[in-house]
Fold this sequence. Notes:
Number of strands: 6
Number of helices: 8
Radius of gyration: 22 Å
Amino acid sequence: MVEHEIKDGDLGDIEHLISMMAKLPGLGPRSARRMVLHLIRKRALVLSPLAEALGRVAETARECLNCGNIGTQDICGICRDNERANGEICVVEDVSDLWAMERAQVFKGKYHVLGGTLSALDAVGPDELRIPRLVDRVKSEAATEVILALNATIDGQTTAYYIADQLEGQVKLTSLAQGVPIGGELDYLDDGTITAALKARKEI
């Protein structure tokens, strides 16, 4: 029995789509193949509308000139919302962190997306991030509090210390509490989290 040989171009576009999908976070080659096959089988229901949506987003998506959020206008809806001009600016590393904060629906101020963290190994300095822009915003928006909601990594904490040094004496600086998450069990927590939780304990 002679096996069918795939001619050049038979799967060219499909393989290219698979390779592009495999570059997405959380997807490897196998997951990308399964996803592409599903999209092809559901061409009318999923693939075509998805392609149209991707095309629209590619044309309209842009970074907010003020805070770095992703939206479809030069100034995002959060920055345009006067009801959120309460003097509080929450500093996050990435847009995904901003969206996570918004899902919680507890913060009613404005945001500032750094676009990463300081990293000597990767040659990422303050000018590669939006730290100078943050300093300008604190002054121009008369901010009363800057909340450093950065990840509890070495680079994240280094960035927080740098920002605190830049803004010292200009505004109230706070950071998110670190400790046991709601629903968390001690047996599943790492030593650093337990230590932080113990140090941040409060009277009840």
